[in-house]
């Protein structure tokens, strides 16, 4: 999601725009907190095999399943329903969930944003064709599409990412298109065009930075949605297969009447998803303010 | 805001209950049911004799009648709402046959036909007498290719011309079933079929007249619905509720004390126990009780006294393979897997001892021909070193070179998925084989399982009886059954025993030998014989809970007579029940 | 304008045709069928009977043709999975009003509350109100509705017979003759259902209003001495509308077609659950009916969105011709 910071609507005298942005960002306490949160989660995800006390699929069948946390020091966060160490599951879950939660929006934005920009900026028959494509894609229920594709390509992390991404590009496309529709006739775009800037330069350098804030928000929302969409697929028997750990699926397995008795099953992964979401929100807000100083009051 | 709201709701519900309770307590002196019988002394007022269960909002449901469908019955997993007639036979608490609509039955001297004698005087709610013709019409409906009944296998090879009628080679009228007179029904079989009466247990009939006039969906419309059974349809809204009320014209063997049976739709799997705790439903089947729920039950005296375990349909959960292809065509590999499964620990800690006993064979203890002495235990006993040695002998020392496996499950619930994850972990731990667990969609799994060649190389599934005879349970393992495992000796024994009459002991012995082959040749790896059960509200009572031969006191599988005995006790009015809390 | 709308409606028809072909082919390629539920499998004869009963014995092209000729007369065939095999249109007509009712209340609740929260947060940026709104918005999206629903069930209990005669209301009916907004039967599902869109609306409103507030024209207006209220309505809200319309309008078809979790958990006989169950149960006629319904709803929503753009910002031209 890096975009050149150059060229806001008001062309201010600037030093290094990147340096300024970084300085503003680092002064924003919430944003820094979010960044640290995300770095921690990323660290856990990267070094899961080193950090996790046990192997991801290892089951301790000689102990009661669903052992509650803080009882047995060997399993500080308890066991899951199959007798697997829950701390280990949570750590490995970070890897799967961050992978899904990040790559799904990333891929869908990589598809959606350029198409949306093209559609909104150029208009005409390009817009018309892309819009009909969007109509078709939205009208096909994502679940049906996912079910079909996964039954063809088989279950597994990569396939789940692929399927979720190709059903997720519509939202960023529409968002981008709307922004471009709104901005393409604004004064700064018209003047840039009059000065002979190329379309690409206008799109990437002038409009996109202005259109960034709804996109950032949309991205932060897309992360937990992807995590839970993956859980939904697993729930229907077409998602990630065990013993791969994923937070979304772990939340799903802790619901129902057991939520009060074996509280740890739903509680810990829910907290982790919430932290991830918070991290992305704070960083997103921070980025937006850092990239466009006009907006901070 | 939130607190105020909950207080408000609390007050509202209290007011609601008060308004129901006050007028009723006054009228208690004449506590009679619609048949003019006095209710048991401790019964709650007749107005309150209402039984409620939760139905699953997500299933395909097409009819209330078992004659139209078995797998798509409305609120159907417990057979509770098909009460518009009596089956020919019923089962007592010991699972012995007792009279249903038929007061007696007998085989012919040559064993090739059975005659059923209906109890005289039985009527439909519209005044039409119940006759043998209603049963004949119902069975002809089932066999008719146009209706594509989903349980036709039940009498293939049993009732004369049944398979031929399914294939369309003869008409449904030509099946071996005739109404000799209004009260006499004769069934002709392909050969001697000693277990035939037991296979007729499931099916309350449709009315021949209504079927001819309105088609089978008359059972869904309260205006058209007729009943010769204990209940009649009062209201049905698909996906919302199904309500039955006591049938005043019913004079059969199970006149109900209950005034109404209600099925309400919701989240049956995750919501049943919550609804129970809120006093909204009267019974929860073990399938919808999680380990967590059971901790709550075990910690509560009243609840644990009202959880009634039993053997249900003698269901066994097991692993199976495609033994027609490598690597599972190798017996040593199968043996290695069987001995790497630590059932005892998994049952004790993952499944829960209250929900099952470790299985070393297919037929659960207590089922006819089952291995009650434990003689089959030796073949699949957990023994990790032996398992490792077997796998090494088969050419995969330490699991090296063994292909990665995917254990496919049949749309299992969250709880049962855990059983198989633990089982896969047990085998992986011991043998060093990589196993991922894929909980598939039910229909996709079945399509893969039944395909030939099968697409399920390694899977887990369960089976429970449809009638109390080994021919039913072991039938899934014959080479034309659902698994890709073949043993000619097993096939021969089962097929010969199926039709053997005159020597029940020899017949059981043949089934026992067959099961030993199944276990020894590792057609499947057996994990657990389920202990089933139901949780009832403490104010549910009835003769149904009288202890059986083994001292089990529960609502058994197939005990349809129970619905004439259940009633709600005055305990329902006590302040500390879930209903009133 | 009329020409444009006509052209779009024609395009919508074409889109529905394409969608129906794609879904028809996909649906039949997915393994499993409406009847493959048997424990023991079927003999070839029994299987052939089943296929004939469901009309699956005919070639794909013929089946599609039958579907299409029916669909043109709004006849999508008979449901495989609903008791009594009613026509698909009947199932939809019966179940949709229930879902619509809940959906409309959800939209009202989440949009009014969400927009209010968003505006307040934008005007009071970086204060505790702003943080509270952000926190609520985060919560609304990270707590999946099934968790919220579970806790509400534990607190309030299963609804014994849903929507029969909506029990005592907390807020009276908004339209005469309809169910009260906050009847006990409606409150829990609406509350559960509204949280996620509320979060989304609040968050986007806050961002768009904040963007608009800091824009040059607002500063100019301020400098000119315009009153705050005037600035807010004339400039801020108007400019904040574009992103809001883009993101928020498409929430509406979703909300109007319901949700599986809400309907199953609260036992509501609505349409939402069919979007999942008709697929898992392989109810082919129902799938086709629903897909076309959704295609139509989306098409109309997008059309309205595009028309709204022009109303909000007259410089946006519908044809887009000659702009580049």
Structural commentary:
Chain A is an all-alpha fold. Chain A has one domain: MetI-like fold (Orthogonal Bundle). Chain A is 68% helix and 0% strand. Chain A has 13 helices and no strands. Chain B has 581 residues and is α+β, with helices and mostly antiparallel strands. Chain B has three domains: 2-84 and 217-311 and 534-580, 3-Layer(aba) Sandwich (D-Maltodextrin-Binding Protein, domain 2), CATH 3.40.190.10; 89-211, Dipeptide-binding Protein, domain 1, CATH 3.90.76.10; 316-530, Dipeptide-binding Protein, Domain 3 (Dipeptide-binding Protein, domain 3), CATH 3.10.105.10. Helix content of chain B is 29%, strand content 18%. Chain B is built from 17 helices and 21 strands. Chain B starts with a helix and ends in a 13-residue tail after the last strand. Chain C has a domain at 91-271: MetI-like (MetI-like fold, Orthogonal Bundle), CATH 1.10.3720. Helices cover 68% and strands 0% of the residues of chain C. Chain C has 13 helices and no strands. The longest helix of chain C is centred in the first third of the chain and has 36 residues, at 88-123. Chains in contact: A-B, A-C, B-C.
CATH top level assignment of the largest domain in chain B: Alpha Beta
Task: Quickly give the structural class of chain A.
Answer: mainly alpha
Number of domains of chain A: 1
> Which series of helices and strands of chain A comes N to C?
HHHHHHHHHHHHH
Structurally, the number of domains of chain B stands at 3
- Strand order, sheet with most strands of chain B: 14-18-13-17-15-16
- The share of residues in helices of chain B is 25-40%
Q: How would you name the oligomeric state of the polypeptide chains in this document?
A: heterotrimer
> What would you give as the CATH superfamily of chain A?
MetI-like
SS field, number of helical segments of chain A: 13
Can you summarize the main beta sheet of chain A? none
Could you tell me the number of beta strands of chain A? 0
Q: Averaging pLDDT over every residue of chain B, what do you get?
A: 88
CATH architecture of the largest domain in chain B: 3-Layer(aba) Sandwich
